[in-house]
């Protein structure tokens, strides 16, 4: 689940970069005016996203994460804050979850932090006082968060259009819910031969056609689990203090559990 969270978040951020609604107009000179934001075809949407994905340098905002298991009639909801920044071609991502609501129970304080520095994904859980560090890249070859996520999730705006079409059937969906009027919705259905077939049956991306911001992403697993992420009150390309990505493991957590990098088997000669 931790890898899924990272993949889903970077997928949403990639959509943010592609639609590029920065606070300063000069950050996005090719921006389409709101009244002309509607796009006619899937290719139009994807091509415009890919043309602008390189513009995202920082992001901060609130996050709402839901995990549903309908077969077990279980649902959890977490709220927190997300930080992303790119420094000297190296990306950093931090998610600080602050509250948890499980099923019908009252929402309660629940502190859990995810920090990714290009090499290590560190998870700190303050309820059980545990630390776990997953190595996701070689020390001398830090991974870009978007490239890493694309191994587990189609990152809209970064994954090539031809690759997306090879893995998914993609269509624009007319949003009939009046509360979501003005949103652009992309529906991706996993093809039988897709490399994602064991992880997702389908995914939906909602984006604000006027503001150019992602609203939510929903992913469905073959086990009928549902992952939902919403981003609220975003601050885009305004910079993030490097100290945000610093952390220390509390002494009473003990030594962190280390999950080493999974080595790829060598190619046969």
- Read across the widest sheet, the strand sequence of neighbours is 7-8-9-10-11-1-2-3-4-5-6-12
Task: Specify the structural class.
Answer: mainly beta
The CATH homologous superfamily name equals Lipoprotein localisation LolA/LolB/LppX
Supply Rg.
19 Å
Strand content: 35-45%
Number of strands: 12
Distance between the termini: 36 Å
Average pLDDT, to the nearest integer?
80
- Flag low-confidence runs: 18-39
Helix content: 10-25%
CATH class: Mainly Beta
Instruction: Output the helix-strand order.
Output: HHEEEEEEHHEEEEEE
Protein model, in words:
By secondary structure, the chain is mainly β. It has a single domain, classed as Lipoprotein localisation LolA/LolB/LppX (outer membrane lipoprotein receptor (LolB), chain A, Clam). The chain is 14% helix and 38% strand. The chain has helices spanning 2-19, 42-50, 145-149, 161-167; strands spanning 58-69, 74-87, 90-102, 108-116, 120-125, 130-135, 168-173, 183-190, 202-208, 214-220, 226-236, 257-259. The chain has a twelve-stranded mixed beta sheet. β5 (120-125) and β6 form a beta hairpin. Residues 18-39 have low confidence and may be disordered.
Brief description of this entry?
By secondary structure, the protein is mostly beta strands. The protein has helices at 2-19, 42-50, 145-149, 161-167; strands at 58-69, 74-87, 90-102, 108-116, 120-125, 130-135, 168-173, 183-190, 202-208, 214-220, 226-236, 257-259. Strand 9 (202-208) and strand 10 (214-220) form a beta hairpin.
């Amino acid at each position: 689940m931790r890898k899924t969270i990272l993949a889903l978040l970077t997928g949403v951020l990639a959509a943010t970069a592609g639609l590029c609604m920065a606070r300063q107009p000069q950050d996005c000179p090719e921006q389409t005016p709101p009244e002309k934001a509607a796009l006619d075809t899937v290719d139009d949407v994807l091509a415009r996203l890919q043309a602008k994905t390189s513009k995202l340098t920082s992001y901060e905002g609130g996050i709402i994460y839901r995990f549903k298991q309908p077969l077990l009639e279980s649902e959890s909801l977490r709220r927190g804050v997300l930080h992303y920044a790119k420094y000297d071609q190296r990306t950093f991502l931090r998610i600080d979850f602050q509250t948890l609501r499980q099923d019908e129970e009252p929402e309660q304080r629940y502190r859990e932090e995810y920090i990714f520095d290009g090499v290590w994904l560190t998870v700190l859980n303050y309820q059980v006082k545990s630390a776990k560090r997953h190595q996701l890249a070689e020390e001398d070859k830090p991974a870009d968060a978007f490239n890493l996520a694309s191994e587990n999730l189609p990152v809209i705006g970064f994954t090539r259009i031809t690759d997306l079409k090879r893995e998914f059937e993609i269509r624009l969906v007319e949003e009939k819910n009046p509360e979501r009027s003005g949103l652009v919705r992309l529906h991706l259905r996993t093809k039988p031969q897709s490399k994602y077939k064991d992880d997702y049956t389908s995914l939906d991306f909602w984006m604000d056609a006027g503001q150019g911001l992602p609203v939510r992403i929903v992913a469905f697993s073959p086990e009928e689990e549902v992952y939902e992420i919403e981003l609220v009150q975003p601050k885009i390309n305004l910079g993030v203090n490097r100290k945000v990505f610093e952390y220390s493991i509390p002494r009473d957590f003990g030594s962190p559990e280390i999950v080493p990098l999974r080595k790829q088997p060598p190619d046969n000669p």
